[in-house]
Amino acid sequence: MPESLDFAIRTVDLKRSYAKVPGHGDVVWALAGVDLAVYPGEVFGVLGPNGAGKTTLIKILSTLLLPTAGRAEVAGYDVVREAFAVRRIINMVSGGEYSGYGILSVRENLWMFSQLYGLTYSEARRRIDRLLAVVDLTSEQHKKVNKLSTGMRQKMNFARGFINYPRVLFLDEPTLGLDVTVSRRLRAFVREWVAEDTTRTVLLTTHYMQEADELCDRVAIIDRGHVLVCDRPAALKEKYHAATLEDVFIGLVGRSLDSGPEEEGAAS
Amino acid sequence: MTDGSMPGVAAGRMTSPGRLAAWWRLIEPNLRAANARAYVRIVGANRELSWLVWDVFLPFLGTAAYVFIYRAINAPPAFTGFVILGGAMTGYWLNTLWSMASQFYWERHTGNLEMFFVAPVSVMSILLGMAVGGMFQTTIRSALTVVLGIVLFHVHFEVYSAAGLLLSFIVTMVALYGLGMMMSSLYLLYGREAWHMSNLLQEPIYLLSGFYFPVRALGPWLAALAGGIPLTFGLDAMRQFLFGPAAMGWLGPWWEVAILGGESAIFLWGARWALDYMARLARQEGRLTLRWQ
Ligand SMILES: Nc1ncnc2c1ncn2[C@@H]1O[C@H](COP(=O)(O)OP(=O)(O)O)[C@@H](O)[C@H]1O
Ligand SMILES: [Mg+2]
Question: Is the distance from the beta carbon of residue A176 to the nearest atom of ligand 1 less than 6 Å?
Answer without folding.
Answer: no
